[in-house]
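quick one, 123 residues, struct below
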Amino acid sequence: MPSQGFRLRVFELVRRIPSGLVLGYGDVAAALGSPRAARQVGYALASLGPGGVDREGVAVPWQRVVLKSGHVAFRGDPIRGDVQRRLLEAEGVRFDGDVIPMTEFRWDPSGAALDELLHDDDL
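---
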């Protein structure tokens, strides 16, 4: 299981993904300086409460994190997968069949905001 600090950084980074764009689990992990922690990103997002809120009741747009292939992450759970797809489509994300064209919809998490997040000692 991810540490509380890692989980909070995951939530904060995912909140910064703009509506209509996505990141892969591994992209989130790499952006946070832990490129081999994609599974821990999934665990962190799975710990969200109903409605995708953290323990403080703040929403985390979990639907914006997908598999690196562009597939929604809950293919084995058709209800959650359908919810994720509907939420993404409502934000303007287009699917080609069951796959998001990542070259078009992948967010680039670089820049000063990311550097600030990585060095925020309050998280």
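The chain is about 45% helix and 5% strand.
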